[in-house]
Amino acid sequence: MQEFETLKQLVEAIEDDVLKAEGGNNAAGTRVRKQMQEVKKAAQDIRAKILELRS
After folding, report:
1. Into which family does the record put it (predicted)?
2. What is the maximum alpha-carbon separation in the chain?
3. How buried is 47 (Cβ within 10 angstroms: 0-12 exposed, 13-18 middle, 19+ buried)?
């Protein structure tokens, strides 16, 4: 499922910024929050796809 692969790639791409944000880097925290919106959208796309497959 392509949507799931996209979600995994998004999460992997955020890892460095998450570590920087934990270290106190405010700019990295801002980037993580923005990227998490993309993760949320990707998760919603997966939910829709699964519902579509159930029908």
Report:
1. Belongs to the histone H1/H5 family. HCT subfamily.
2. 46
3. exposed
Q: Letter for the amino acid at 48?
A: A
Give pLDDT tens digits for 24-49: 999 999 999 999 999 999 999 999 99
Question: What is the DSSP-derived secondary structure letter of residue 17?
Answer: H
What are the C-alpha distances in Å from 2 to residues 38, 44, 49, 50, 54?
15, 13, 10, 12, 17
Residue with tokens 């992997």: 12
| Residues composing the chain | 55
The answer to whether the beta carbons of residues 17 and 28 sit under 8 Å apart is: yes
pTM above 0.90, yes or no: no
User: How is residue 44 annotated by DSSP?
Assistant: H
